[in-house]
Amino acid sequence: MTTQSLEKSLDVVGIGNAIVDVLVQADDAFLAQHDLTKGTMALVDEARAERLYASVGAGLETSGGSAANTLAGIAQLGGRAGFIGRVRDDQLGGIFAHDIRAVGARFETPAATEGPSTARCLILVTPDAQRTMCTYLGASVGLDPADLDLSMVAESRLLYLEGYLWDSDAAKQAFIAAAEVARSHGGQVALSLSDAFCVERHRASFQELVDGHVDVLFANEMEIMALYETDSFEAALEQVRGRCRIAALTRSALGSVVLEGSSTHRIEPFKLGSLVDTTGAGDLYAAGFLHGLAQGWDAVRCGQLGSLCAGQVVTQLGPRPMVDLKALMQAHCSPDPAA
Description:
Blueprint: H1 3-6, E1 10-15, E2 19-25, H2 28-33, E3 41-43, H3 46-55, E4 60-64, H4 66-76, E5 81-84, H5 91-102, E6 106-107, E7 119-125, E8 131-136, H6 150-154, E9 156-162, H7 169-184, E10 188-192, H8 196-201, H9 203-213, E11 216-220, H10 221-227, H11 233-240, E12 246-250, E13 256-260, E14 263-267, H12 281-294, H13 299-313, H14 325-332
Parallel strand pairs: 1-5, 1-9, 2-7, 3-8, 5-6, 9-10, 10-11, 11-12
Antiparallel strand pairs: 2-4, 7-8, 12-13, 13-14
Helix pairs in contact: 4-12, 10-11, 12-13
């Protein structure tokens, strides 16, 4: 770790969609009735979001958003985290801001005073614990370079970017501007591909981003295969090898594979209880991995901590851990390889 990185006041700053999640239990018939594909994320307009919300039962409201979940997890692990994202000055915006600050993350992006309402995501959890997401992006897509606290980015060892932002041209420019600032101040850039359909919408530009701007890539099995247009995970693995410093590829019950140069590390999953809800599993894997990386851990221990955090969050409803993640880390993942 360089002297410059040791002087950083933040471990990880993330940029992503600031969303309030509404988690509801549903069955396959409901998905079919509303023409929803299980396990995917669909973007919806405000009218459809309201219709879907009116069609389901009582839900659990919790602050979410992929990158925000990751940064909240890092803060819970004891890391110094910051988040940049746009909310509106409405009730949901207030909920989002309160929740992310309450876990110890810095959140200073000013709320919009006009325009679309705060984003929300209806997450339908089926009995097999799969989650199907219908997302209204609302105010979050209004993020642009003027919203960025570039001093926060410059102060961070790692900048974490959410692939979902690539659906907004303004947010995309904010994304690139932040990556340039991070790099110019000795930081590293991490990217989550977020969703296979998102990858398919922006494949060429994602490939260019991975090749030219990304140090650490996070993707699940479907996303990495979509990126390289193959139905073979092993073929996709070899395609991405060497394009960035580290690629952390998650495979649900099969654990994860971490590529680092010519090395391939296969990380076993942690099973900490019954599977309840997969919402946030990838986000919390990234949280554990990035926290370890910011502390100078090697790639294997980073992957193990990511797997531990993911293994915990799938045993509960919702994407924000309801246990003491720091204590869990201390019990299962020693930073000392000799311990």
